[in-house]
Structures are given as structure tokens and as C-alpha cells.
From TrEMBL:
Keywords: Cytoplasm, Methyltransferase, S-adenosyl-L-methionine, Transferase. InterPro entries: PCMT, SAM-dependent_MTases_sf. Belongs to the methyltransferase superfamily. L-isoaspartyl/D-aspartyl protein methyltransferase family. It holds the Pfam family PCMT. Transmembrane segments: none annotated. It comes from Limnohabitans lacus. Residues 1-48 are annotated as: Disordered. One of its GO terms (molecular function) is protein-L-isoaspartate (D-aspartate) O-methyltransferase activity. Gene3D superfamilies: Vaccinia Virus protein VP39. This is Protein-L-isoaspartate O-methyltransferase.
Length: 267
């Protein structure tokens, strides 16, 4: 059974209205950051890059964003979010020097943090047609918490579910100093989604299975978009975008990707 989100400390009441946005309309406004957990943990400060620019420097992130734009990423809100979130705070200290390279990195328990290009690409696909912040978003696979942090800047509310307790706790530790009060972390089976927070304006998965679980489709709002890696008939993993319309679901298969396998249960 899914546990109640542990971050922030309080959920919206069960009677709170649910967002059902159209693809081109933002839903709601972001909550003010007025509710805290406990005092923030000390911030880790890894070594500087060889260029002499510290990892805390905005110039380092700006350089990464410039590369993403050169690779074809266009959504201004996504690019701004990528430039705001300090990726080096979500990787092991020994790997911090590679944090702003376009590469995936191990985060423990056989899982990885996705390449910046993949994170930005999937969020951009989920936001396609939107002119402002999305409403409620569901992330499947919290991992170290990096993508949830990025999503917090492009959506009014983020529900992120992780099946591995060790990573769930790591994400809590990583996100606590940032005080992102529109992010809710859930320890539970991601294949079941999180119906209490739905319907969702967008759903994004960091793990790929044979098919998109029906629970995710049921929790997607009309006009919402789901982005997930899925096994194709040819046996390869590819990004799939599913748009829910009044008539049903529209499915688009895009480029090949490589994600960890989608699994059920908790561990």
C-alpha cells in the first residue's frame, strides 16, 4: 500500500479541486513557500570544475543550458528550470565534477540519474502546447530527486513516487534544503500511480516497461500528456507520448532511449 507523501509535511485536503487543464492553458498558481519541515541540512559543496568555475556558479549551469538549446530544446520554462536546479547536489561527491556533462550517472541501488538532455526533452514533451505552468504532475521513479526539483519549477504541484526506500530517503535528504513546498514524495509502487493526487495534467516516468500501466492512463486528466519509455514491438525501448482527449488516447512513438526497467512492488 502506498504511504502518504512525506514531503512536505501536509497534503492538500481530500476535497481540494483537481486540475483538468486543456493542453494550452496553465492550471492554478504555485503555492507560496511558507511551510517548512525541519531546519535545512548542511549543503554539500563539492570541488570546483577544472575550468575554475565552482559548481555552485550559475555560469556552469548556463553553459549546460546553452548546450541543451543547441541540441534543440526550446521550451523557455524548461530551460530556465534546468538552469536553476543545481544538479551536482543530487549526485555523489566523487562524481560531482561530471554533474553538468550530458551523461547519466549512478545514484545507487542499480539506478541512475538521467542525462540533462533526456530530462529536459521528456519534460518539454509533457509540456507541449502549454503556455504557463502545468497543474498537478505525477513522476514515476523519484530516484535522487533531481527531476522532481526541475518539475517543481514548471508545475504547480508535483507528486513523485519511488519504490526503493533507500532512494526515497536519499531524495528527501537532497530536496530538504531546497524547501520545495509544491513537491510531495511518496514511497510506494509506481505502477499503481497515485490516484489521491489525480487527475494529473502530466505524467512522466523514469522507468520503462512492456506497456504503459492502465492506472497511469486512468489518472491522466483530459488534455494531459504522459511521457514514458516503453518496449516497442521490435523489442527496443522508445519514448512514448500519450495525449488524453475527449475521444480517448492518442499515442506517438519517438526516439530510442535506455531506462532502467519498470518494476512493481516496493523494496
Amino acid at each position: 500500500m502506498n504511504q502518504r507523501p512525506g514531503f512536505p509535511a501536509k497534503l492538500p485536503s481530500s476535497g481540494a479541486p483537481r486540475s483538468t487543464r486543456s493542453p494550452v492553458s496553465p492550471v492554478g498558481t504555485a503555492k507560496p513557500a511558507t511551510v517548512g519541515l525541519s531546519p535545512a541540512s548542511p549543503v554539500r559543496r563539492p570541488a570546483a570544475l577544472s575550468s575554475g568555475l565552482g559548481l555552485d556558479s550559475g555560469a556552469v549551469r548556463a553553459r549546460m543550458v546553452s548546450k541543451l538549446a543547441a541540441q534543440g530544446l526550446q521550451d523557455p520554462m524548461v530551460l530556465q528550470a534546468m538552469g536553476t536546479v543545481e544538479r551536482h547536489r543530487f549526485v555523489e561527491t566523487a562524481l560531482a565534477g561530471q554533474a553538468y556533462e550530458d551523461t547519466s550517472l549512478p545514484i545507487g541501488l542499480g539506478q541512475t540519474i538521467s542525462k540533462p538532455n533526456v530530462v529536459a526533452r521528456m519534460i518539454e514533451l509533457m509540456r507541449e502546447g502549454a503556455t504557463g505552468k502545468l497543474g498537478r504532475i505525477l513522476e514515476i521513479g523519484t530516484g535522487c530527486g533531481y527531476q522532481a526539483a526541475v518539475l517543481s519549477h514548471v508545475a504547480t504541484e508535483v507528486y513523485s513516487i519511488e519504490r526503493l526506500r533507500g532512494l526515497h530517503e536519499k531524495a528527501r535528504e537532497n530536496l530538504r534544503p531546497l524547501r520545495l513546498h509544491n513537491v510531495h514524495l511518496i514511497f510506494g509502487d509506481g505502477m499503481l500511480g497515485y490516484p489521491k493526487g489525480g487527475p494529473y495534467a502530466g505524467i512522466i516516468s523514469a522507468a520503462g516497461g512492456e506497456a504503459v500501466p492502465q492506472a497511469w492512463l486512468d489518472q491522466l486528466a483530459e488534455g494531459g500528456r504522459l511521457v514514458a519509455p516503453t518496449i516497442t514491438p521490435a523489442g527496443h525501448q522508445a519514448l512514448v507520448v500519450i495525449l488524453r482527449t475527449a475521444q480517448g488516447f492518442e499515442r506517438q512513438v519517438l526516439e530510442a532511449v535506455h531506462f532502467v526497467p519498470l518494476k512493481s512492488g516496493i523494496a
